[in-house]
Design a protein that fits this description.
The protein is mainly alpha-helical. The protein contains four helices and no strands. The chain has a single domain, classed as MazG-like (Helix Hairpins, Orthogonal Bundle). Helix content is about 75%, strand content about 0%. Helix 2 packs antiparallel against helix 3. The relative contact order is 0.15. The chain binds magnesium ion (MG).
Length: about 100
């Protein structure tokens, strides 16, 4: 699955741009839940995802996508542009150290 497909999947069932601040609050909440399961090292048990790092990572990704949808942001385009920025930064750091 590509990121844009996940964004479209979420947009079809959960798209309320007027509630973007609530999506942001949910994102922060999910990051908190992720923090807890990472601290407790709770990995998915067989196919039971509840209360695991896998579940909370997905929840964070979900709200990142929901927020991107509110702003009509294509995360794949962001990836492309940001990769170029990081690449240039990496090369200039390389040059600074070389
Ligand atoms: Mg959660």
């Amino acid at each position: 699955m590509q990121i844009i497909e996940l964004q479209n999947f979420i947009k079809e069932k959960d798209y309320k741009p007027e509630l973007k601040e609530k999506y942001f609050m949910k994102l922060v909440e999910e990051v908190g839940e992720l923090s807890e399961v990472i601290r407790k090292e709770k990995r998915m048990n067989h196919h039971d995802i509840k209360g695991s790092i896998e579940e909370e990572l997905y929840d964070v990704l979900y709200y990142v996508c929901a927020l991107a949808n509110c702003y009509d942001i294509d995360l794949e385009e962001c990836h492309k542009l940001k990769s170029e920025v990081n690449e240039r930064k990496w090369y200039s750091n390389e040059n600074n150290h070389g």
